[in-house]
Amino acid sequence: xxxxxxxxxxxxxxxxxxxxxxxxxxxxxxxxxxxxxxxxxxxxxxxxxxxxxxxxxxxxxxxxxxxxxxxxxxxxxxxxxxxxxxxxxxxxxxxxxxxxxxxxxxxxxxxxxxxxxxxxxxxxxxxxxxxxxxxxxxxxxxxxxxxxxxxxxxxxxxxxxxxxxxxxxxxxxxxxxxxxxxxxxxxxxxxxxxxxxxxxxxxxxxxxxxxxxxxxxxxxxxxxxxxxxxxxxxxxxxxxxxxxxxxxxxxxxxxxxxx
Length: 259
Ligand SMILES: Cc1cc2nc3c(=O)[nH]c(=O)nc-3n(C[C@H](O)[C@H](O)[C@H](O)COP(=O)(O)OP(=O)(O)OC[C@H]3O[C@@H](n4cnc5c(N)ncnc54)[C@H](O)[C@@H]3O)c2cc1C
Ligand code: FES
Hints:
Elements: E1 5-18, E2 21-27, H1 29-34, E3 40-43, E4 54-57, E5 60-62, E6 67-73, H2 77-83, E7 90-97, E8 111-117, H3 123-130, E9 134-141, H4 148-152, E10 156-161, E11 168-169, H5 172-178, E12 185-189, H6 192-205, E13 208-212, E14 228-231, E15 242-244, E16 251-253, E17 257-258
Parallel strand pairs: 8-9, 8-12, 9-10, 10-11, 12-13
Antiparallel strand pairs: 1-2, 1-7, 2-6, 3-4, 3-7, 5-6, 13-16, 14-15, 14-17
Bound molecules: flavin-adenine dinucleotide and FE2/S2 (inorganic) cluster.
C-alpha cells in the first residue's frame, strides 16, 4: 500500500459544475503522485468545531502540475464550507487513503463497465484514464449531467437519467440493457441500492465485479470501526465478519461483501 501524506493543500481553482456540485483542484504533489484510481482523501475543516475530516474520492490527478481534483456534492456543513473556498485558500488533507480499484483486471483486449451513480461518478474519471482495456462508462444521474466530457474523452459513454432528460430513462442497468452492452469486468461506485443491483446483475451474468462503498466515516484511517460493512470472511483485525471500508476498502470484490 502506498504511503500516505498529511499536508496543507492550497486550492488551485474551484468551480460549480452542476447544481450543488463543485470541482476543486488542490496542490497536493506527493498525494497526486502516490494515488491510484478509487482512492480517496480526508479533507479537514478549517473550523475547529468540526473535528472529523470528510472523505472525498480523488476524481483525477495531474502529476505534472502536482495537483489533484475532487468533485463533490454539498451535503452538509463540511462540504458547504469547502464550496465557499477560493483560489489561494487551503485545507489540511490526508491521503491517498483506501485501496483503490484493481486496474490490472482489465488489460488490453478486455472490456470494462465503469458504472457510476451520482456522486459515485467522480472516481471513474481517473479509473477511465488508467485502464488499458476498453472503457465503457455507464453513468446515472438524477437529472443534471456532470463530468461527461472527461469520461467521453477516455472511451464510450452511456448515460441514464431518472427523469429521462438525457440518455436512457431509468437506471444504469436499464442503460446497459437498452444498448445491449457486455463486459468482462465491472467497476462500480454509487448509492447502495445501485451497488446491490449491480452485484446481482454481475452474479447473474457471471462478470467479475468490484464495488466501491461510500459509507459514513469518522477517523478514515482504520482506527475507530465507524465504517464497517459486513463481509463474507472473518476479518483479521476485528475477528468478526466485517471489514473497515476506509482501510480494507472502499473497493471490494462484490462477492466478499454483504450489501
Ligand atoms: C470513500 C468515500 C468517498 C467519497 N467520495 C465522495 C465524492 O467524491 N464526492 C462527494 O460528494 N461525496 C463523497 N463522499 C461522501 C462525503 O464524504 C459526504 O457527503 C460528506 O462527508 C458529507 O459531509 P458534510 O459535513 O457536508 O455533511 P454532514 O453534515 O456530515 O452530512 C450531511 C448529510 O449527508 C449524509 N452523509 C454524510 N456522509 C455520507 C456518506 N458517506 N454517504 C451517504 N450519505 C452521507 C448524512 O447522513 C447527512 O444526511 C464519499 C464518502 C466516502 C466514504
Ligand atoms: S472511519 Fe474509522 S475505521 Fe473506518
